[in-house]
Amino acid sequence: MTSRTAPHRGDAHRREALAAVRKAQSRRARRRNLVVTGVVLAVIAAVVTAMMLTSRPSSSTATKAAPDFTLTDTAGKSVHLGDLRGHNVVLYFSEGAGCGSCLQQMAEVEKAKAAFDAADVTVLPVVMNTREQIVKDMATYGVTTPFLLDDGRVAKAYDTLGKGMHAGLPGHSFVLVDKDGVQRWTGEYPSMFLAPSDLLTQVRQHLPA
Questions:
Q1: What is the architecture, at CATH level 2, of domain 58-206?
Q2: Model-level pTM?
Q3: Strand extents, DSSP E, 81-209
Q4: What number of other Cβ atoms are within 10 A of residue 101's Cβ?
Q5: How far, in Å, CA of 63 to CA of 180, rounded?
Q6: Do the bridges between strand 182-188 and strand 172-177 make them parallel or antiparallel, or are there none, so unpaired?
Q7: pLDDT in tens, 78-119
Q8: Going by C-beta distance under 8 Å and a sequence separation of 6 or more, which residues neighbour residue 13?
Q9: Which sequence spans correspond to the domains of the chain?
């Protein structure tokens, strides 16, 4: 009798021990998953926070004489900043060709041309592209305002290089030059858009009374 039941009792003990091991393994796996999930969520939160911080606009109101320049635009015209004395000028630096948001920004500014004209503000978009590169995007987004073609010297003079996603290109920058050729305001917009009405608000706020 004893010899027949002993193996069954042994099997039961083994099953109980195996079940206990499996439960312990399952608990450890759950703990590992919780830890991994916590780490992943913490990393995601850190990335989102970093993106929010880096996408915030920044502004500078340091005044100085605006660096003068002469650039050729996509229409083949030579544009000299000094010739625009007596008018308020907003220089719009962007990544240029390949940046849809950059072209859409200029398209929206064009739609508000009457408001800019009323404020005596001329917006000059500046890109570090060849004419062939940027005119394709201009056609795609329906932009007709000629772009000034910069080799990087003007963007560097206005300290706009490396303010966006690319170290060697401008970010999404606006520079206000008043009627006397004084640089009054610089705004950086990593979110890649500033409503024209908000741009005009910045212009009015930073022009001398």
A1: 3-Layer(aba) Sandwich (3.40)
A2: 0.75
A3: 88-94, 121-127, 148-149, 172-177, 182-188
A4: 13
A5: 12
A6: antiparallel
A7: 999 999 999 999 999 999 999 999 999 999 999 999 999 999
A8: none
A9: 1-54, 58-206
